[in-house]
Amino acid sequence: MGYEGREEVQIFPNKEFSAKRQWIATIAASIGIWATGTVLGWSSPSNPELEESGDLGELSKNQLSWIASIAVVAALLSCFIIGYTVEKIGRKLTSIIMVIPFVIGYAVMASAQSVFMLYAGRFITGFSGGAYTVITSVYIAEIAQDRLRNTMGTVMVVCLCSGIAFVYIVGAVVSWRITSIICGVVPILHGVAMLFVPDTPRYLLSKGQTEKAAASLQWLRGAPSVQDIEPELKEIQSSIEEANSNASGGSLLVGSTIKPCLMSVTAMAFQQLAGINAVIFFSVDIFKAAGSDIDPSICAIIVGMTQAIGFAFAGILMNKFGRKPLFFFSEVGMCISLAALGVFYYLKEEKPETAENLGWLPLLSLVMYMVTYCCGVGPLPWTLMGDLCPPHIKGIASAMTTSTNWGLGFLVTFTFQGIVDAIQGYGAFWIFSGICALGAAFAAFVLPETKGKTVEEIMRLFADKV
C-alpha cells in the first residue's frame, strides 16, 4: 500500500511534523466531495435543456422539481446508513466502495430513455454524494492535527463548490448526457486516489489494529519513526476509551449536552433555509425568468466560481474574526442581497420598463449572496458541528446535523417552484431574506463564540447555563 514507506522530514520548531501527507490525504478524500458537487449542480444546466429539447418527452414542472430534488432525498437517507458503515468497515473502504454506485448512477442517467430512469440515476448519485459528506468529514477530522483541522475542513467545502462550478461549465458546452458521462469519471478519480492513503488511526485503534494505526499515523505525520508518534497514538487511544465509557443513550438528554447539539442543528437549519439549494439547482432558471441580458449559463458559471473562491477564503476569515461575528455579517449580507433580488423580480412583474434597465441586478445580487454565504453561513455550520457536539455523542449529533442539512435542502429544492408559482419570484426571495434576518438575530443573541476554545471549555460554557 502507498503509505508504508518512510521518509525523513524536517521537524518544525514547534515540534509539529510535516503536514504534506495530511494535505495529500485530505485532497484525495475531498475528490469525493467534488463528485457530490456535480450531483448538486447537475440540474441547473440540464433541467432547462431537458425541458426545451424534449429528449425524454414533455416534462412537467413537478417532474423537473423531482429531477432536481430526488438526489437530496437519497442523500438524506444515506447519512444514517453510511454512519453505520464507516464504523463497521472503515472510512477508507466505505469511501472506495461508494465509487461503484456513483458511477452506475451516472451511467443510468447518461443512457436514460425515460424520466423514471433519470429519477433512478439521480437517486443513486444523490445517495453516493450524501455518503461522501459523512465519510469525508469524519475522515478529515480524524487524520488532521488540531492546528490544521479547520483549514483542512475548508478544503471539503471548496471541493463541493468546485464540483458545482465544474458541472455548470461542462453543462454549458455539452449535452446533459455527455455531462453525465464526464461527471461519472470524477468518483473514479477519487477511488484511485484513496488507494494510496491510509484509513484513520482512530478507526484502526477502535478495531484493535494497533500496528496498522501506528503505521497510518506515522505516514500521515511524516514521522521518522513510530516512537515519534507514540504520545499522539496514546492520546487517541485514551480518547476512544473515554468516549466508550461516556457513551449512553440517555447522555444526549442532559441539558449541557443537548443545548450545544441543538445549536449546531439550528445553525445548519439557517444555512439551508437561506435558499442556497434553490439558487444552486435553479440558477440558470432564475436568470432566464429574470430576463437578464447576460447569458444565463455564463451567469451560473460566475455564481459557481464565486462560491468556490469564497469558500477558499472562509478558513482565513474564521480564524481571524471568529465564528459568531462572521455568521452574523454573513446573514446580514445574504438578507440584503436576497431582498434586492426580490425587488428586481417585483419590478419585472409590476414595472417592466424599469426592470429592463436593471439586467445587471440579478447577477450582482447572487454574486453578493454567494460571497457572503461562502464566507460565513456556508462553512460555519460544519465547523460549529465539530466545535459544539460533545465527543462521546459526536456520531449521533453529526447524524442529526447532517440529516437537517439534507432534509431542509430537499424541502427548499422541492417547494421552491411551487412557492414561486404561488407568490411570485419576489415573494420567494423575500421569504428567504426574512429567514436570513432571523439567522442574524440567532448569531447576535444565541450563538456562542467557540474560536480558540477547547472542547472542555465549550462544554463548561453550556454546563454553566444548566
TrEMBL record:
Q: What is its main location?
A: membrane
Q: Which Pfam families match?
A: Sugar_tr
Domain Major facilitator superfamily (MFS) profile, residue spans: 25-451
Nucleus among keywords: no
Q: How does it sit in the membrane?
A: Multi-pass membrane protein
- Which cell locations does it reside in? Membrane
Taxonomic superkingdom: Eukaryota
Q: Note whether Membrane occurs among the keywords.
A: yes
Residues crossing the lipid bilayer are 23-44, 64-86, 93-113, 119-140, 152-170, 261-282, 294-314, 326-347, 359-384, 396-420, 426-447
Keywords (A to Z) from UniProt? Membrane, Transmembrane, Transmembrane helix, Transport
What CDD domains does this protein's entry cite? MFS_GLUT6_8_Class3_like
- Record-stated family: Belongs to the major facilitator superfamily. Sugar transporter (TC 2.A.1.1) family.
The entry's protein name is: Major facilitator superfamily (MFS) profile domain-containing protein
Per the UniProt entry, what species is this protein from, by scientific name?
Answer: Orchesella dallaii
